[in-house]
Design brief:
Elements: H1 18-32, H2 34-63, H3 71-84, E1 94-96, E2 99-102, H4 108-113, H5 122-141, H6 149-163, H7 166-174, H8 178-190, H9 196-200, H10 205-213, H11 218-226, H12 230-250, H13 252-260, H14 266-270, H15 284-290, H16 297-319, H17 323-337, H18 349-361, H19 365-380, H20 383-392, H21 398-405, H22 407-428
Antiparallel strand pairs: 1-2
Helix pairs in contact: 1-2, 2-5, 2-6, 5-6, 5-8, 8-10, 8-17, 10-12, 11-12, 12-13, 16-17, 16-22, 17-22, 18-19, 18-22, 20-21
């Protein structure tokens, strides 16, 4: 296929009606047998998620065009192997079988976390990485749903539908890590505090770990501080510091190089030598550059204004009690505010769209189908198609060209506005 393979006590007199019995049974199970009951529930959900992820990954790998090695996955693999042998992964492009050359843009601790991908042969490792990625996505999309056979089927369909979009399809084809980091962050919000893991690892630590691996989740720490969630902020900082310390202990030279020079030139590494105006740059900075506004003080002010707006939106959604939605807004805003963002960085758009669709399905099923189908159709088109339409199409196609060229940005902005408006309606009822 490719050339890179190497991969309760009750009285006897009590006569309860069936609904009453069910209520009491639920209370007893929750209070007396909470751990076992919860464990069974988690096991059922785990099975549904694993099945959905495996089925989706299998189908994706069957229909994906052959012959295109997963460049990002191979970069992770080769960089982790090089770092384990003491090489400087920041000295130049990482190369290896199937990888002509690509810069490694993550802090040194990432090579430690990614080391397990070096154990299996390349193709086997990539298949496992894909199954894990789509299983994590299925888990994220299943937040707030019950676990049934129908749910598993719907989850599989949702993951497959998302996989056909340019956003997720490109993410999986290149073997990106963003879905896994999204899973780490949202696991910090949704996991139980009374579990063994929850007691040993306080909330916030996983966000800190994600930040140590890839710096953009640091925006969550800003959100915690703005919303005065000091415990979350403190543990996120502690988690990031601890993970970074592990990286520094194991790779002191790489840590010094990253701190002295690499962190200050990350944009030049992430953009792969493309100009800020490149159609693939799905960010506020990219839009400004494409409009002819060179990066400078005005562009910085615009980015800060957008950051203040999305931060305010997340704050309002948090105050309305929609914490998951607030986290999704923060997740979507990170690539918006970054100097250079690829469309596969917008993975938080997918659970945001799923949550909005679930919320509106009962009241407006037809409208939900139309809007969701339209959004997915838009995300099927790559930014390059919009760029071509703007350049060679008629004048009246300019709005469509802009929408297609900036499709990930548009989907994120629409989702942020919809989540904010939904929280506002809930708060004013």
């Amino acid at each position: 296929m490719t050339s890179w393979t190497t991969l309760a006590d009750h009285s006897p007199e009590a006569r309860l009606r069936e609904p009453d019995a069910r209520i009491i049974l639920a209370v007893v199970l929750d209070q007396e047998f909470g751990h076992e009951y919860a464990t069974a529930g988690r096991a059922s959900r785990f099975g549904a998620v694993a099945l959905a992820g495996t089925a989706s990954a299998s189908l994706f790998l069957l229909i994906a065009p052959p012959g295109r090695p997963p460049a990002d996955f191979l970069t992770y693999r080769y960089a982790a192997a090089l770092a384990a042998h003491g090489a400087d992964v920041y000295a130049g492009n990482v190369t290896g079988p199937g990888l002509a050359g690509q810069p490694f843009t993550y802090p040194p601790v990432a090579t430690v976390v990614l080391w397990p991908v070096t154990v299996l042969p390349g193709r086997v490792g990539y298949v496992g990485w894909t199954v894990l990625t789509l299983a994590v996505l299925a888990a994220v999309l299943s937040i707030g749903t019950s676990t049934t056979a129908r749910t598993t089927t719907v989850l599989t369909g949702a993951v497959l539908a998302a996989s056909t979009t340019d956003l997720l399809g490109d993410h999986v084809r290149v073997g990106q890590i963003d879905v896994l980091l999204m899973g780490l962050c949202l696991a910090d919000l949704t996991r139980r505090d009374d579990s063994r893991f929850g007691r040993a690892c306080p909330r916030g630590v996983l966000v800190g770990l994600a930040t140590a691996i890839k710096l953009t989740p640091a925006l969550f720490v800003v959100h915690f501080a703005v919303t005065r969630q000091w415990r979350l902020a403190a543990f996120a900082v502690a988690g990031c510091a601890a993970a970074t310390a592990v990286g520094a202990l194991l790779h002191p030279g790489l840590t010094g190089t990253f701190a002295r020079s690499v962190v200050w030139t990350l944009t030049d590494r992430v953009d792969l030598h493309h100009a800020p105006s490149y159609a693939g740059n799905q960010s506020v900075t990219g839009i400004l550059a494409a409009a002819g506004l060179d990066p400078g003080p005005v562009a910085v002010l615009v980015v800060l204004a957008v950051g203040a707006a999305v931060g305010t939106a997340a704050h309002r959604v948090h105050r309305a009690g929609r914490e998951l939605d607030a986290w999704l807004i923060i997740g979507m805003s990170a690539p918006l505010l970054s100097p250079f963002s690829w469309n596969h960085h917008y993975v938080f758009v997918l659970p945001a769209l799923a949550g909005l669709a679930r919320r509106s399905w009962t009241a407006r099923p037809a409208a939900t189908v139309v809007v969701l189908a339209g959004t997915l159709a838009l995300l099927h088109l790559g930014p390059a198609s919009g760029d071509t339409l703007l350049r060679d199409g008629p004048w009246w196609a300019v709005p469509a060209g802009v929408a297609v060229r900036e499709n990930a940005v548009l989907a994120a902005v629409v989702a942020i506005v919809a989540l904010t408006c939904s929280a506002h309606r809930t708060a004013t009822r």
